[in-house]
User: Fold these one by one.
Assistant:
Number 1:
Amino acid sequence: MPTKKLDFKTGQYVVYPTQGVGKLLRVEEQTIGDQKIKMLVIDFERNHMTLRVPLERAEISGLRPLSSIKKMDEAIASAKGKAGAKRMIWARRAAQYEENINSGDPMKLAEVVRDLQRRTATDTMTFSARQLYLRALERMAQEFAVLHKMDLDAASDKIEDILGVPKEIDLNAADEDDEEEVDETEEE
């Protein structure tokens, strides 16, 4: 079965499905046994990891260049939609979400974000749902950040703003008026 040749350049950002966005540092030749193999050396700064992928296995591994801004915008727009049906038991849904996250596909990441995001400030999430949501959002934000030349936290905030995800309620925040009232009662 013929495969298309992927053309990667040093310094280019790429997406490795199970790790997210990394920067291609170089192509090096390694000798393993009696064979010389060309390896793509990819740095995942956020994960503090360097990955070597054999050039001939790059496509099979799912390594790909960044999406276009248009494709990323389409993915974010799809995440605005109505959450998918939740008829499966949580363990199966969680496994499906995990598979979607590890696909590296922006549309599948958007599905996870869409299905797990909070719709109102009072919505709650289980710990495992929150972890899956944050991983999917981070993977989307990694690519969004590089495409829009911004840092990761700003990209995450921007995506959540676009989606209309309500901000966390800080239960420890005290209103200034409340503090003044407390001080007055203490004086009496």
Number 2:
Amino acid sequence: MALHFARVEYDRRIAATCEAMARQGLDGLLLFQQESMYYLTGYDTFGFCFFQCLYLGADGRLALLTRSADLRQAQHTSIISDIRIWTDAAGASPATQLRDMLQSLGCRGRRLGIENQSYGLTHFNGKLVDAALDGFARLADASDLVNRIRVVKSPAELKHVRKAGALGDAALKAAVRRTRSGADEGEILAAQQGAVFAGGGDYPANEFIIGSGRDALLCRYKAGRRKLGKRDQLTLEWAGVYRHYHAAFMRTLIIGAPRKVHHAMDAACREALAAVEEQLVPGRTAGDVFAAHARVMDAHGMHDHRLNACGYSLGAKFTPSWMDMPMFYKDNPAVISPGMVFFAHMILMNSKAGAAYCLGRTYIIGEKRPEPVSTMPLEMITRQ
């Protein structure tokens, strides 16, 4: 099997999940998040774009309902032995077949947790599940049950995060080598993604972000490429990815002489990131981190150019986003603990001046101080 952890690691995760289920009075879990399936069993697929559900009983029993295309995927990548197939056919009713599976597992009349907040359970399919299980079992929202467990990474997971960090550094070095006046954005993007693949890494859970000129002010990927001018700016947001574990980074590279506004933004971003690092310690909250970021940015006169969030948790994530919870925003009470992994991004976008500047990297939370998973310096990167 193509497992990325020892069996004892999966057994530990399942046991922790069963303990959490017991505290909430649940007899079983209906898992629709691909992240939960991967975390608990190793099951690795993008087949969650169709209906599929992993059942975890209070006794640790596993059963997967999926499509025929994912049968061998589950057999090859996971510890699941009980794999059932719902039928692709006109008038197919996978929710009804889910009820049939649960009936065979003795779940009638039981209290079952369900991951409602999931890309793997559309509103359409969620209504079908509710209808199929109405009167059969009592459902309770458990969208965050596994999420709260997997937010703290094990030593084995942190090895993958550090590898992802090294791949992220390789991607930045590749981008810097390609960045120059006249360079095509497509070449830079290809160099970044190629460095991750060449290092044994994987596709990211969302597209790498690249933009130059006024498009350097965008925080999302968009289609279309341009060539860099003699005096330009290039914003990159990318991630090193290893076994689906992400280490995200963000930088704005300056082509030609930096403008005065770029120097001001650089000073604000570096000071804000340093202030954020002081809050990335056990016992602080996600809200404390954002407050440090906002205080410094506002003191530099950057209030109108900063965002209302400055980072988020990272881990093993699937399409459409590598973002995880908790997020750094105002008054978020989520407490930071050792073993958590966070991407802290200092983003400034000045629309009036047409200037952008971003600085961000990923950290592992330690007992006393955060560990950057990058060895790259934070100084402004300029190219000719």
Number 3:
Amino acid sequence: METKNIISKLRTQSGLSQEALAEKVFVTRQAVSRWENGETVPNTETLKLLSKLFDVSINTLLGSPRELYCECCGMPLKDSDISREKDGAFNESYCSWCYSDGDFTMDFWKQYAKLGGKEKFEEFKKQLIYEFNTLLHIEGLPKVEDLYVLAGSFINTEYRLPNGEKVKFLDDNATYLGNQLECEFGGNRCFGIAANMDFLLVSTYEENGENPELVIYKKR
């Protein structure tokens, strides 16, 4: 959908006339009319006001021309997942699990500080990558090239044990380093990997996390 249609739809859904919308974002009614006719597009500052008013991202207002991903964890972003600043404005660079209310989540920065800053954090990531690639020897698991910060609530899958019991190994409120990798043998299953200072975890699952199976949970 084009910007002109999106603004018109959001204005109508909000029960606003063109004049009422113009007053809320400090422009003339003629400016709103030109947006909805496709003659012009709101400038950056006005897009920010429209984003806050309609509670949608600027990317959505512009017709979603970009695929948004969290710059911290790599998670694909929908409006419902995008982080917020303290004033409620969207921050389209991060997901709400990595960044919230104008700051990065506490758990992530506690780990960051505990490791001794950015340089030590990168060294820790490289060590985990080395361990995934050299210690586990899992058939079909491709070489791990990178790890991203992932929210526990996003990856905390429930697995069925051989005795039939269902368990989760992660904490919804914590953050982990992990990635998703396609199986080298093809098919409809892929690998999910996660780790922190205490363990390495590898699982496999189908599209959208369906039918998960735990491959290995190894203490470090």
